[in-house]
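This part of the workshop introduces the protein records we will be handling. Getting from the letters to the tokens is the skill we practise here. An example says more than a description, so a record of this kind follows:
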Amino acid sequence: MYKYLLCWRYLRTRYIALASVVSVMLGVATMIVVNSVMAGFSAKMRDRLHGVLADVIVESRSFDGFRNSDEVMARIKEVAGEDVLAMAPTMETFALMKWSFNGQPITRQVQLIGIKPLERARTGDFAEFLVDEKGRQIPPSFEIPERVKLNNPAGQMLQDEDDPAMKAALKQMVENQASEQGTIIGYAMGHAHVQGKDYCIAPPGTRVGLVFPQAGDKPKVTYDDALVVGYFKSGMSEYDSTHVYMPLEQLQRMRLLGDGEGHGAVNQIQVKARPGVDLNTLRDKIETALEELKPRYFTALTWEQKQGPLLAAVAVEQSILNILLFFIIAVAGFGILAIFSMIVVEKTRDIGVLKALGASTSGVRGIFLGYGLSLGVVGSGVGMIGGLLFVRYINQIEKGLSVLTGRKVFDSDIYYFNEIPTLIEPHTVLWIVGGALTIAVAASVWPAQRAARLRPVQALRFE
């Protein structure tokens, strides 16, 4: 009983130990906040990456793709069975896109993707990322609405014209200016961010020109144009600034890969798996089956493998940051070691009295180990509560700091997040608290052992 009483007394009266408690508290709170924010960002990023890509992506090694996409999809369905819910053939190629804004030409390097929008929507979150110029969601389609066709000088004049003959002439001009098909471009390409606001520089109805290579041993460059009918806004700048979608059949025809019957060549197949299916196992099945169909021609990757370098970089950054932040708690451990060593020297006579009165070696050791544990419990407990409260109100804190400093601490325009994303993982909180307790107890072992080895006669000689 005396061990607990002495631990409680030291905890209340030895204010020098408050420095160690504060160090442990700050270390635990900081690690909880940082891990929660990084886990939130990582989860959001993974959701958006997974939304853009299907569960498994089958690609051809040839840039020109393969024409037997129906046979390939049938083979995938045969080996995967009910594990596959949907598939979408896709053609991807690089291209240059050019349009005019306020009389100034704008040229961008883009990733041109030919799709069947309804099929692509069934393999991921493609439909959820489609918006109009005002950010309202639009259906997955390349059809050109009437309002988009009228979004040009002739269309504006048509709306204000009453003369039937002039209206007929203007209608013909509108039809001549309109392209046969629409295109969906990345949101970041069609908008310019100036002084905290987004300005549309490629509004719906803008005629864009696309230059891309044809198929063949000596590919030539071909040209096509289209009208902007919507925007792709995934929240990932890599995609929003490069992706351009157009009808699959049109891209096949322009690249000389169409057959006129809707069965042209594709170089990708997006595969949507049933929830709960092991994607690595499914990928192995698909890759093995396609290897038998055409050796060393197809590759199959899960969406995580497709974005492996990016996801691995985030994981490495989080690990390194955790190691650096854990040094804060390690410093607190050295503080506990120094403080306990001072206490042993200061209380040498008291330790001798305790031993003379019958205190055992393990009992004296237990006093200091218990004291170290108490410091760790108080510091990590307060730090855990403080860290969780900080995470809970982090967006309110961010707004307060923005007002105080006069500048945005978290600019939502960079990440397209309305607020700072957080994700509290219980097992992470447990290992942070457990690590702090371990360091606090480990730092008190050497002073506790030193105190326990004191003999009553030697200790009392300090009197």
Residues 2-46+310-460 form one domain. The longest strand covers residues 84-101.
